[in-house]
Amino acid sequence: MEKLRARRNTLPIIMHLLVWLVLIILPQIIISRYSGNNNFIAWGFYINASIIGVIFYINYFWLVPKFYMNNKKALFLLLAIVVVICFYFILDYSNHLYHRPDRDRRIVEEIQEETRESRFQRPPFKLMQIYGYSLLSIVIVGFSIGLRAIEQYTASEKRQKELEKEKLNSELAFLKNQVSPHFFFNTLNNIYSMVAINTDDAQASILKLSKLMRYLLYESEHGVTKLSDEIEFMRNYIDLMQLRVSQKVDIQIDLPSKQNDLKIPPLLFIPFIENAFKHGISYREKSFIKVKMKTSDNKVFFSCENSVAKEKAEKRDENHSGIGLENVKKRLNLLFAGKYDLNIDSTPEIFSVKLEIDTAK
């Protein structure tokens, strides 16, 4: 990350150096072609290039950000013209000190002759000099505006991405904090109901609960976890829930047994299973819960289907899926936008969920 930041900070400097290298060398190569003078690194040109650089950076560091970017374009234009005029006189004085007027005039005449402009009336040399300087000034000012605008847009995009990342992290933390207490509360209720029925089963449940709590406290603190760890957590949860269900409940579990190093967000599938036990268990009639998962390359295929107990179906409303499932939907949107497919089918008798996730980055 630090290397990436350093590279981003160095890139603008390299761009500035390359641009000025071209601006310094290219014009002199062209001039030397017509003047017959290959010594294009004269002191006079260095002074001219320095003056051009000062004009650029006055605009780049002061006029553009302070006035142009703050919608004070009229004042910016006025100040830019003043700066250009002031430095024109300095540039003109520099030309008189270090350049021979007859040589400059000869260069212009040769260029006119080659471009077949000699047949027309030639404008005065001084007028051409002013015209060339004005055109160069427009290019310099425009380039400073364009470069500053690009950098401001890039910085704005970077800030926007950082804000979105901070928002994502805060929302995920909020959603995870909602999931954990909700699940923990239901699990404690299950253990409480088992204590009076079977002490041994209660002890086994407490042991499994300790593993669940360890996962919640440590693994879920990370943004991602191994799929194999998540599967182990799911098995412990289902084993814990099975201790309190009757023989009338048919629970079918088909989860990958081999180690899988795919990375996924923790506690992503538990709300579906929790919802199945909450709404699919009936103590009056036969009911079922089917949980399946398989993987292929970087994809995870998960399904959870359960019967809907009649005594609970009567209490269902539009929000029967509960906080847990809503949190899962939000987490999927935040983490796997465009890379997941979630289908929830709800009927009076059966509630089913099918989820496909592409974990590839």
Automatic annotation (TrEMBL):
Source organism = Draconibacterium halophilum
Q: Which UniProt keywords apply?
A: Membrane, Transmembrane, Transmembrane helix
Transmembrane found in the keyword field: yes
Q: Name one Pfam family in it.
A: HATPase_c_5
Which terms in the Gene Ontology molecular function aspect does this entry carry? Answer: phosphorelay sensor kinase activity
Task: Tell me the ranges covered by the Sensor histidine kinase NatK-like C-terminal domain, including all copies.
Answer: 272-357
Could you list the residue ranges that cross the membrane?
12-34, 40-62, 74-91, 130-150
Annotated Signal transduction histidine kinase internal region domain residues: 171-248
Q: Which PANTHER family match?
A: SENSOR HISTIDINE KINASE YPDA (PTHR34220:SF7)
A GO cellular component term found in this entry reads: membrane
Query: What is the protein name given in its UniProt record?
Result: GHKL domain-containing protein
